[in-house]
Design a protein that fits this description.
The complex is a heterodimer of chains A (277) and B (271). With 277 residues, chain A is of the alpha/beta class. Chain A contains seven helices and 16 strands. Chain B contains twelve helices and four strands. In chain B, 51% of the residues lie in helices and 6% in strands. The chains are: A alpha/beta (277), B alpha/beta (271).
Chain lengths: 277, 271
């Protein structure tokens, strides 16, 4: 399977302009024989929505969803948007479109709400980490801060996923001698999930600025058992292509099978003991 | 203080300037060049972002300004190939103080800073150029600026860099040595120096601010690492006492949605 990351900077609040950009990139990808195109978290709306979120009507969102469903007849699409499930109940969603339909809608569970983040002000939190099928691959989606809780990736791992699509709006921060410390957050876990959880791990982060906050890019692909094999540029808009090979998963498990040696029943018992005493 | 990566810092600031100008529908930037280090590096970074033909400089001396400031301002503009205009603000300042005389240097300094802001915004419209601000993190945190004067700008590219980091960045960018090595001064009156007026050397001030603000160290921890309690308290007072300079004026709430309180939109709304 050929996958493509679109690392770009959405216009803040302008979902129609962002949809047009998605459309252009999707048409290009179809021409290039790509099977799956991945846009970052909130790729259709931008990140720091504040009150803009209430100005984005369900009709506007529905129009974009229909447009993406139509485009997904020729290619699978991952895109992010504020998803208003019922009036006023808005999720930070990442949706998987395929064959003209919505196959999966992952609603962000861990909403960051500290410092420069205020997602709990505007979003309702999702409640689960369910998998879905992409052809012969079992897949899961993680959104930004969810990536930083290894237990979330672990839940997918236990559901025998082959691929984790991880999308982000990560602001760069923590400048030091080696650059921004925030890049390492994602790369470190990409290495862990691809090697210790045998995953095809695709990290798609946005670029650009919103009210001075810069988003770092640095999207990458980490292959099962290998770690990061394809690294995108920081800060720049970029298209990153990769080939997902299911055989890599088998090779990774044969080499050192962490899934076979897992003891989820013991983990569950221990969690029960810790939580309920 | 942790070292910063100057190459990446430069890259980010250049991208930020370019993005801020473009997304607001402009192609040009205008900068008040004082002859000091802050405006010199902002000019350099703006030229990197927009090109020299899209960058304009205004040099705005007052009769008491040091001649060295003007010549250093010209030097950096010439080095970068930037078009500039020299506008003597004395005829706009002196008639006012002839009518309302004062010996208070702060009053004259503030008046000059606001006149420069006024000229910059006038030229912003004339040149269709956004005002690129030159405030650094140290002065923003301690409020060492004139409200609606030198702090007024469309955006602040070096507003998260401490003064000592600005100096390091200036060396990295190859800013001419006289601009780097002279004592930082707002040049609002003769022989004024920042450090004299603030009462701290930038080296100490920045270390304290970095530990307090960026590392969130407690007073106890900082005293433990050798800082004086009275210095820490003085600086904390400067920060707290100048919070009004860092926020929009409050509006008393009457209706359901109030600007600045629960009418919450990003500045980059639809951009």
């Amino acid at each position: 399977m050929k996958a493509r990351i679109i690392q770009f900077s959405p216009a803040l609040g302008n979902i129609e302009a962002n949809f047009e950009y998605h459309k252009l990139k999707i048409i290009d990808a179809v021409k290039d024989g790509i099977d799956l195109i991945i846009f970052p978290e909130l790729s259709l709306s931008g990140y720091q929505l504040k009150d803009i979120i209430y100005d984005i009507s369900r009709e506007r969102i529905d129009k974009v969803l229909v447009g993406l469903m139509e485009l997904s007849k020729n290619i699978d699409i991952v895109a992010g948007l504020p998803y208003e499930e019922s009036p006023g109940m808005i999720y930070n969603s990442v949706i998987y479109f395929s064959e003209g339909e919505i196959i999966h809608n992952h609603k962000k569970v861990q909403l960051p709400n500290f410092g420069i983040f205020e997602e709990e002000m505007i979003f309702k939190a999702g409640e689960n980490f369910k998998t879905f099928r992409i052809g012969n691959l079992n897949a899961g989606i993680l959104i930004c801060r969810e990536i930083l809780f290894p237990i979330n990736a672990y839940l997918y791992f236990l559901q025998n996923t082959d691929i984790i699509i991880a999308v982000s709006n990560s602001p760069h921060r923590g400048m030091g001698e080696d650059g921004f410390s925030s890049h390492k957050l994602w790369e470190r876990l990409g290495e862990v999930y691809s090697i210790n959880f045998h995953q095809n791990f695709i990290f798609c982060n946005r670029t650009g600025f919103e009210d001075g906050i810069g988003f770092g890019g640095g999207s990458f692909y980490a292959a099962p058992g290998k770690g990061i094999v394809k690294m995108g540029k920081y800060y720049e808009e970029q298209v990153i292509d990769m080939v997902i090979n299911k055989d890599d998963i088998r090779r990774s498990k044969i080499s050192s099978n962490y899934l076979r040696d897992e003891k989820p029943d013991i983990i569950l018992k221990e969690l029960n003991r810790i939580i309920h005493g | 203080m942790a070292e910063i990566n100057l190459k990446i810092t430069t890259d980010i600031i250049v991208r930020f300037i370019s993005d801020s100008i473009r997304k607001n529908g402009f192609t040009n930037g205008i900068i008040g060049v004082s002859g000091g280090i802050d405006s010199a590096i902002v000019l350099d970074l703006t030229v990197k972002a927009l090109g020299k033909d899209n960058t304009f400089a205004l040099l705005m001396p007052y009769r008491t300004s040091s001649p060295e400031s003007l010549s250093d301002g010209k030097t950096i503009c010439d080095k970068l190939g930037v078009n500039y205009e020299i506008i003597d603000i004395t005829p706009s300042i002196d008639p006012y103080f002839e009518k309302y005389p004062t010996d208070n240097k702060t009053l004259i300094g503030n008046k000059c800073a606001r006149e420069r802001m006024s000229v910059l915004y006038d030229f912003s419209e004339r040149k269709k150029a956004l005002v690129v601000g030159t405030s650094n993190k140290t002065e923003i945190l301690i409020g060492y600026s004139t409200l609606f004067g030198d702090s007024a700008a469309a955006f602040l590219p070096i507003g998260d860099l401490y003064k000592t980091e600005v100096i390091e960045l200036a060396k990295y960018l190859g800013i001419p040595d006289p601009i780097i090595s002279k004592k930082p001064s707002a040049d609002l009156w003769m022989d004024q120096t920042d450090e004299g007026e603030i009462g701290f050397k930038y080296e100490i001030l920045d270390k304290i601010l970095y530990d307090m603000v960026d590392l969130r160290l407690t007073e106890k921890e900082m005293i433990g690492s050798g800082f004086k309690k009275e210095d820490l308290q003085k600086i904390q007072k400067m920060i707290t006492g100048t919070q009004f300079k860092r926020t929009m004026p409050p509006i008393t709430k009457i209706h359901n949605r109030t600007v600045g309180l629960d009418f919450r939109y990003p500045r980059d709304w639809n951009k």
